[in-house]
Every structure is written in structure tokens, then in C-alpha cells.
Write a structure and sequence with these properties.
Helix 1 packs across helix 3 and helix 2 runs antiparallel to helix 3. The N and C termini lie far apart (50 Å). By secondary structure, the protein is an all-alpha fold.
Length: 75
């Protein structure tokens, strides 16, 4: 359902999974890949893009914390 909502919202990033929702979806996906019916292409894309965005957010956060640490060390 959520993948379809994301698709209908023109792949708006605010509809992507985060945190525990993303972890649960990844666990479901790993189990569902072995069962029938398999996850759809849309569900697969939704999960992949959600993970990519989560990694981007984490990198930006670490970059910001690193920059703040450097600035505070200089001061």
C-alpha cells in the first residue's frame, strides 16, 4: 500500500520509509523474496530508494557533526 501511495504522489521523498518502518520492510522483503507471490517491481524500488535516502540522511548528519566538531576544536 505504501509503495503505491508513494508512486501516486509522484515519488515524493516524504512518503519513503524511515527508521523501524524501513527495518521491518527490509525484513519482510527478505522473507517475501522466497515466497509466492514475489514482491513487485514497485515494492522493490520503493524499498531500495528508501534505503538510499536513509543512507544519504545518515551521511549528511555525520558530515554536519564532523564539521561542528572541527569548528568547535578550532574555537
Amino acid at each position: 500500500m505504501r509503495a503505491l501511495e508513494w508512486y501516486r504522489a509522484n515519488r515524493d521523498k516524504s512518503f519513503l520509509l524511515r527508521g523501524s518502518d524501513l527495518s521491518q520492510a527490509e525484513a519482510w522483503f527478505s522473507q517475501a523474496a522466497e515466497k509466492s507471490p514475489e514482491p513487485t517491481l514497485l515494492q522493490t524500488q520503493y524499498l531500495q530508494i528508501s534505503r538510499q535516502e536513509a543512507v544519504k540522511r545518515q551521511r549528511l548528519l555525520l558530515l554536519g557533526v564532523g564539521a561542528a566538531l572541527i569548528v568547535s576544536a578550532i574555537l
